[in-house]
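Help wanted!
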Amino acid sequence: MSKIKKITGQPLFLPIFCMLLVMAVNIFYDLGSGRFAFNFFTVSIRNGVLYGRLIDILNRGSEIAILAIGMTLVVSASAGTDISVGSVMSLTASLCCMLLAGYGVASTNTLAVPLIVGVLAGILLACVCGAFNGFLVAYLNVQPMVATLILFSAARAIGLLLCNNLIVYVRNDAFKFFGGYLGFIPTPIVIAAICIAVVSLVLKRTALGMYIQSVGINKDASRIAGLNSEKIIFLCYIVCGLMAGIAGIVASSRISSADSNNIGLNYELDAILAVALGGNSLGGGKFNLAGSIIGAYTIQAITTTLFALGVSSDQAPVYKAIIVIIIVAIQAPPFNAWVKRLSAKKALAKGGA
Amino acid sequence: MDNKVILTMRGISMTFPGVKALDNVDFTLRQGEIHALMGENGAGKSTLIKCLTGINAFEAGEIRVDGIDGPVVNHSTLDAQKKGISTVYQEVNLCPNLSVAENLFIGREPKTKLGTIDWREMTKRSEKIMKDLDMQVDVTQNLEEYSLALQQMIAIARAVDMDCKVLILDEPTSSLDDNEVMKLFTLMRQLKEKGVGIIFVTHFLEQVYEVCDRITVLRNGKLVGEYPIADLPRVKLVAAMMGKDFDDLASIKSEETPKFSDEDILIDAQGLSHKGKIKPFDLKIHKGEVVGLTGLLGSGRSELARVIYGADKNQTGTLQVNGKEEKINAPIDAMKLGMGLLPDDRKAEGIIGDLSVRENIILALQAKRGVFRLLPMSKQVEIADKYIDILQIKTASRETLIKQLSGGNQQKVILARWLATDPDFLILDEPTRGIDVGTKTEIQKLVLQLAGEGKSLIFISSEIEEMLRTCSKMAVLRDGEKVGEIVEDLSQETVMKAIAGGDGNE
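Answered by r_m:
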């Protein structure tokens, strides 16, 4: 009994449990359809690159995972969410593609400016967006939801302006790299891994992680104890913008274009959900980055599984919603209390008999 | 005085992870009695109350309430309220932005036939409640318009109106001044006449002797005993709470007043001010000197200290530290000059509730080092363990969340946070508020010890005796203005006179 308690008490228990649940569904499906039970986990090499459902999930989930990093910090420090990340992704893609193709050009095979210039300019703009959000929240005390609502609605439109209302295609192998392959591994997986590694390392090696949590838990007490609460919140939004920029480049590279209306659409919601699934309170304070990352891949796993089960992409959100309801309910404190009471009753009945 | 027993708790036990919080505790409350529940921090007072009101689940024992057959187990405060047990806490748990009437009837509003709220009826009944309790309150005004004391009394009125037989007052007087305390006591006596049984939890010994009929003392989660007030004089009460004879507080200060020369000036503030709160003031603090700031609540004694520390920004004048003029824009600037501030509002400005004791202790030191120079974990553990040991912080482990500690131990953790930064100048704002006698003495001794090591301190307290014991100089404040300093002839009388102003005859 105490052993079980020890395991369920782990902070990462629920996110991992949810992940396993999704995987179990896959195994049963494979068994049911008469295939090899671990079909889901098989990774093979086809056409010189990694292939398999697991790889697909890791690959497709990269953007959400990258966004979830920034979102986790923002949620922790400011007890609010940055709902502009999806739009900022799209804006980043627009600026990058516009620079690479040249203003007003709808499609190009050759690059107008060096690749690195376009990419960095896009990411820089995303950081500026993050700084804008951060300024409103940290220094002007605007509620995070309201502050980021501005760019949520404006960023996509700005992107369209930059692209002269065109969908700009950049059909260039160098640009395709970010959504393509590095050797035999999909590049997005590598990029996500680097982002996760760098941020984790910074959190581990500096006091930033403690600062962010401290400010998120009690801003005033943190200030008295010598922290610059505003600056820390500001910084978190910049990091969130940076991550949105990186995710935007990846998403854009995948489709070789800057499709303002579709890149990053609804991704902010997935990113927020990833944070929640990771067992992080949206009320700010303590955070667990690993939980958010697992949450992000869980969301992608659900999507991929649904497609594998033959659910059409129009209906997928319905099933996704049902699964999310279940997962969130399992994590809710009243449910936990109920389970505890139930098991206590059982133990009592056993003792009586 | 042998009234009917309305509440009995028998053999209550409960464990927190690693700590036996309550061990076979009995408690009995009679009708129309004010019953003090006393004990040091961590003795189990709050836990016992929480078991009664359903916030904590107890493991063994039973509770019986008059008029209800069989043992009572409450699962929530609402549950307890339905059985006639209401609680009013130190922090008023009402809505400041709603009117007094709304607060009185929130959740049980009188309805019209249409099912909408009957505002007229609500106002009428609210006025009657207020009148019955001799409180002069305009019930249509927002609650925040009234002083904390009145808010607390309104909270009590609400509880009483809900047919409560047992009223629990948990540290109700901690943030009230003497006058307000008197008013509260009058109200308590009125309720007593009406047959309400009151459980009174407090740290103020004088108050116990003023209103209570009976005392139950807890120590380390165990029942020490239940005594009629006449059988337990103050010294015996303290001895019962501490489990040892009372360490005489008066003897901790050495007799001779230290002399300070001008070369030893550490802090020299000239004309500092904060708009609307603090008028320009001068203040010199020597090395090894303990300066007390005194004045009525709201006279600006906390605010003055906050201006020096940069918690509220200074707007005029100059501040010299160690003979050099310095600009302090934020607390971190002050910290780099060797200052520290223990704020009076522990919950709002002191503790970082969801962080561990270790993290809370090293926070200020870490902030001083800067974000890139993370203290190695081994060092963090060493520092945390050191201060847990020195200050005898009662915690299950150094990784326990600070919010799980009792108030006095939380205060010690914040104190440890500042001691860890090795400050030259420490501002202690109400360091002993809501803390038991034993810890109070420890903190006072610590203050004198720090001064002995050549550190300078500002000490702010509502208890003049406590300041007389520790301070060598007192600055007196009135309405945000520093009106004087008392260096020689420090006594209760001179200080009182200075606070009262004029010739003190008013």
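OP: Thanks! One thing I noticed: Residues 249 and 333 of chain A are 38 Å apart (CA to CA).
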